[in-house]
Amino acid sequence: MSLPRRKDPADLRSARWFAPDDLRSFGHRSRLMQLGYSEADFMGKPVIGILNTWSELNACHAHFRERAQDVKRGIFQAGGFAVELPSLSVDESFTKPTSMLYRNMLAMEVEENIRSHPLDGVVLMGGCDKTTPGLVMGAITAGVPVIYLPAGPMLRGNYAGRVLGSGSDAWKYWDERRAGNVSDAEWQGLQGGIARSAGVCMTMGTASTMTAIADAMGLTLPGASSIPAVDSGHQRMGADCGRRIVDMVWEDLTPDRIVTAAAVRNAAIVAMATGCSTNAVVHLIAMARRAGVELSLDDLDALGRVTPLIANVRPSGKDYLMEDFFHAGGLRALMAQLRDRLDLDCLTVTGRTMGENLEGAVVWNEDVIRPLSNPVYAEGSLAVLRGNLCPDGAVIKPAACDPKFHIHEGPALVFDSYPAMKAAIDDETLDVTPDTVLVLRNAGPLGGPGMPEWGMLPIPKALIKQGYRDMLRISDARMSGTSYGACVLHVAPESFIGGPLALLKTGDLVRMDLPARRLDMLVSEEELARRRTDWTPPQPHFERGWGWMFSRHVTQADKGCDFDFLERGFGRAAGEPDI
Ligand code: FES
Ligand code: MG
Question: Helical H runs in 504-543?
Fold first, then answer.
């Protein structure tokens, strides 16, 4: 099946800029000629924006300048006119306090970049964690045809014959170093071997989870999310994106025809089956809401309970990395295992249905992509907890935590800030036992600020030295998708705005019952009421600029942390430029 052509050159959005015989259009045409193009290059052709999140402080996108050339090759071949525009890079590695503070800035920039410019279609180039949701959120709102080009994972890490996984092995060896088991020379070797090429983190961290979600939603070419960044297939995929977006413009294949409730559900199922990053919860909800699809934490918990985890990729899986996943058949092969659970009629950027895209997908290695009959875990990518500590929900990744914590009760050790925790955690006289529940608060969307990835709270050195590597930890922060452990995250409402986590005191008993999806502090209602009266809100972090705006408009984790005024349904939609 292919889609009928719906547009002629006169209907192109860009025709508004270039076609009229008036002074403004004269200016637009003459400025493209200033760039060395002739009318034959652009008149009557779909103008395709390549929104490129390249930056020299985003190592994950180091190949994007070259990749944009592959995309252009495809666009010109298919009879389109390509223009490359920079987009905010939102790099995960260098941005302080957290890249999450800027996901919505990218989304706003994308929306306005598209709205204000003569673009008929867009290729979105992203991959490093927040870039996928940022680009997709903005593009959904902007409403022109888009295709997502995922950066692809970097090569496997390697040091001294050991395979290294992004993030996960950094945490693991850091704990060993704190225990005195890793020499300076080994630490240097690990540092040089853990990130060997362009591309995103090659564990199933936030980046690979989010690009898989974009793929499963139908926003990428089929299976594009699994292709390693430096594989020549990635270049070919780039050119294919360029060729395809031109046809998508003629077909008027806009995101609202693709990102439907069924496509969001498909994406959520696939996320669960990959052992997704907990960050997926926040981003998936935010993207869905942009498309007018209500997705709740409870919907995700319900899917988490029934979806087997079949991607044996770290950190939830045991042995493999994204490169292995690609060679085992990649996302198409994984989705083919889930055929019976997915809505195969969803339309995708190919102009075909998801079912058609999955035809012929083969699993080449059943240890990496497991059959449903032999999952890594029968359920448990994500679970949502509720209780008097988190009335609006909290998230945990059961598959990544020691099962002995699934039902756990212990005394809280509460830190009010990350620096306070950092200062105390290596004090070997710290009053902790393996049963202690470590708590960090003021780390949510407003408190962090930006809900930093602090949620895999460090195990106190006193316990590390005794050989412990996991304990129950609770925060209103997020954690990296490459993290692991018994970490309860995204506690909502957050403590900074007076959520119940703000009322917890060191020594209070905390109880988690994962099978019952409960998280409670065992403190009486009267006592909590007293503490609530005594609570004073902390000083705001920002009194000007972006942070001020962020603090006023960001929603809580259970609503996706979008800005209230950017959500679908807020106010009248922006119109086309009228001058
Ligand atoms: Fe970019 Fe992990 S730092 S994907
Ligand atoms: Mg990450």
Answer: 525-534
Dig out the tokens for 252 from the structure.
């008027």
DSSP secondary structure string for all residues of 5-46: P---GGG-TTHHHHSSSSHHHHHHHHHHHHTT--HHHHTTS-
Identity of the residue numbered 158: N
Q: What is the pLDDT of residues 360-414, one digit of tens each?
A: 999 999 999 999 999 999 986 899 999 999 999 999 998 878 899 999 999 999 9
Q: Is 200 in the pocket of ligand 1 (CB under 6 A)?
A: yes
**Distance of CA 201 from the midpoint of ligand 1 (Å):** 5
Q: Which atom of ligand 1 is nearest to the CA of 200?
A: 4
What is the band of 197 on the pLDDT scale with cuts at 50, 70, 90? very high
Please give the span between the terminal C-alpha atoms of the chain, in angstroms, as a whole number.
Answer: 39
Higher pLDDT, 238 or 275: 238
Task: Please list, residue by residue across 161-193, b when 16 or more beta carbons sit within 10 angstroms of its beta carbon and e when fewer do.
Answer: eebbbbbbbbbbbebeebeeebeeeeeebbeeb
Identify the sign of the CA torsion 498, 502, 504, 505.
negative
Give the SS3 label for residue 223. coil
Atom of ligand 1 nearest to the CA of 61: 1
**Gap between the Cα atoms of 335 and 370, Å rounded:** 11
Give the dihedral sign, CA 323/329/334/335: positive
Is the pLDDT confidence value at 1 over 60? no
Distance from C-alpha of 67 to C-alpha of 501, rounded to nearest angstrom: 46
- Ligand 1 near 93 CB (within 6 A): yes
| E runs forming strands in 95-167 | 121-126, 146-150, 157-159, 162-164
Cα 477 from Cα 445, distance rounded (Å) = 8
On whether the CB atoms of residues 104 and 110 are closer than 8 A, the answer is no
pLDDT at 578 (0 to 100) = 62
ipTM: 0.95
Residue 577's pLDDT is 65
pTM for the full model?
0.96
Count of residues for the chain? Answer: 579
Amino acid 579: pLDDT: 57
- Cα 48 to averaged position of ligand 2 atoms, centre (Å): 30
Supply the DSSP symbol for 383.
E
Write out the residues surrounding ion ligand 2, Cβ under 5 A: 129, 205-206, 480
For range 86-102, the mean pLDDT: 95
| Ligand at shortest distance from the CA of 478 | 2
Across the chain, what does the average pLDDT equal?
A: 96
322 Cβ below 6 A of ligand 1: no
- SS3 percent helix, strand, coil of the chain, rounded to 5, is 40, 15, 45
Distance CA 413, CA 486 (A): 15
Name the token pair of 338.
Answer: 């889930």
Asked whether the beta carbons of 284 and 278 are under 8 A apart, the reply is: no
Tens-digit pLDDT profile for residues 113-158: 999 999 999 999 999 999 999 999 999 999 999 999 999 999 999 9
